[in-house]
Amino acid sequence: MTIPQFLTDDIWIIGSLSGASLTSLRALGIKTIVNLRPDGESDDQLPNRVLADVARQLNFNYRYLPVASHEVLSAAASADVLDTLTRLSRPLVLACASGQRAAVAWAAAMSQTMAIDEVLDITTRAGFNLELLRDDLAALSLQQTVVPSVVAFAEATERR
User: Fold this and answer.
1) How far apart are the first and last CA of the chain?
2) CB-count burial class (<10 Å; 0-12, 13-18, 19+) for 123
3) Residue predicted with more confidence, 146 or 16
4) What is the overall mean pLDDT for the chain?
5) I want to staple 10 with a disulfide (CB 3.0 to 4.6 A). Which of 2, 25, 36, 91 is the partner?
6) How far apart are CA 55 and CA 32, in angstroms?
7) CA neighbours within 13 Å on the CB side: how many for 3?
């Protein structure tokens, strides 16, 4: 099993999932698995349906949230990951092929609720240097802040 990286006390990152890794994660007390890896990404990965079955047998909360590498910094993916992190029980593992996409997905989601410096400090301590994504995370954070404000303004204007 790939060794999980701790982002926070209750959110971990791991690379590719297998039946054996799920069994090991259960023994570590993990409650929830979030699989970010789309089916068919590589020939050696287990399909989501198999992972979901094993996860059910081990009494995990399991969420399949496929996010392709090129989509990880999208507003939609960020919102989905943030919603998942907010709703599902912890300790929680975010999984992808190597762990890098999961770290970026977490950073993108958390840029909505935390300062970018804090997000980058946490990912760096976990072994994921995402400094090159600082501007992307800041833009994503701004997009999440500005868009609802513009919508609220438009709705208020229409009511007048």
Assistant:
1) 60
2) buried
3) 16
4) 89
5) 91
6) 9
7) 4
Is 108 in contact with 47 (CB distance < 8 Å)?
Answer: no
When pLDDT is cut at 50, 70 and 90, the band that residue 147 belongs to is very low
For the chain, what is the total number of helices (H) and then of strands (E)? Answer: 6, 5
Residue with tokens 């501007």: 135
Mean pLDDT score, 6-21:
94
| Rounded Cα gap, residues 63 and 4, in angstroms | 18
Q: Is the Cα torsion angle 56, 59, 65, 68 positive or negative in sign?
A: negative
The two tokens of residue 93 are 């593992």
Mapping DSSP onto H, E and C, the string for 113-135 reads CCCHHHHHHHHHHCCCCCHHHHH
- Name the residue type at position 159: R
| 154 Cβ contact list (under 8 Å, min separation 6) | none
Residues 6+ apart with CB under 8 A from 70: none
Hey, what are 88's tokens? Answer: 């599902």
Torsion of CA 37, 43, 48, 51, to 10 degrees: -110
The full length of the chain comes to 160
